[in-house]
Amino acid sequence: NDVLLEVDDLKKHFKVNQGWIASLMESFGSGEPDYVHAVDGVSFELREGETLGLAGESGCGKTTTGMSLVKLHDPTAGDIVYDDTRLSEASDAEIKQFRQNAQMIFQDPFESLNPRMTVYDTVAEPLRIHDIRNETARVQRALEFAELLPAEQYFDQYPHELSGGQRQRVAIARALVLDPDFIVADEPVSMLDVSLRAGVLSLLDRMTDEFGLSVVYISHDLSLLRHMCDRLAIMYMGKIVEKGPTDQIIENPQHPYTQALINAVPVPDPAVGRDRVELQGEVGDVIDIPTGCRFKNRCSEYIGDVCDQVVPPLEAKTDFEQDIACHLYDSAEGYDPYQDMTGS
Ligand code: SF4
User: Fold this and answer.
1) Does pLDDT of 49 surpass 70?
2) Is the CB of 256 under 6 A from ligand 1?
3) Taxonomically, which superkingdom (predicted)?
4) Ligand 1 in reach of 295 Cβ (< 6 A)
5) What is the ipTM score, two decimals?
């Protein structure tokens, strides 16, 4: 498939201590501000019609990456290329067009919908922002697609009159009403009652097929991502540590972090006999980033100095279909991991 979106070394750092005392100290030169390195050099492609999962524990940067993809955050560095246009160099008209084509579904349908807006206005609002006609017909079609039937019955309802599942369907209708090219779905069912999840997931599945959409799913739930995604990217402390075809990553994980994550997923049938491995240790400091591999303090495969000093690049490794960022696979003859100590 053709590439729809290219994420090129994306970084998003947030300043900590934003208060006036911090600004005053900074203006007097008393101390450098601290930054959380939420996303710290992430590159991947999103192809037309594909579903890509971003996985990892909370705080790994997956949500910040997703919000950057739809331009809810401007990157600190790096860029996103959409339809051959670098967004950092795009005109206002191109950015407006991009915003129309890039939509997001948030985790919490209780917070993402304005409680003072009716269902109709909630779904119609993006059409008004983008000056698109045929409002009523489009709102109706989007609600019908989201299986809120009959659609007119929902027009005048407010979010508090709806169930969690219905609210998430309204959010999906709002995302679809502009006929976008891609959608970022951030933990789209994690706040829903278990009994409602399957229905919303099958709606999302149908949305991908019928609209030919590309979708980025963000979740900590590998079973869900396995079901929904063509490819996976596993994130740890702001970086992708492994990415590739879903089956390959799930069946044949190579990065020690991916292996630990997969082993930590409960197996429904204990007879299947997978040893449950709990992740040891704490996630490292996202402000004062450790040297070398960020997973080193929790890694069961730690191999010494090279892990301590050299950032493992995310690369294709011989014998594997996936890209892996780990020095365990550096052993090709003549390879010198110390050659580029600046890699980040
Ligand atoms: Fe473990 Fe070293 Fe690989 Fe990092 S680079 S995951 S510390 S073996």
Assistant:
1) yes
2) yes
3) Archaea
4) yes
5) 0.99
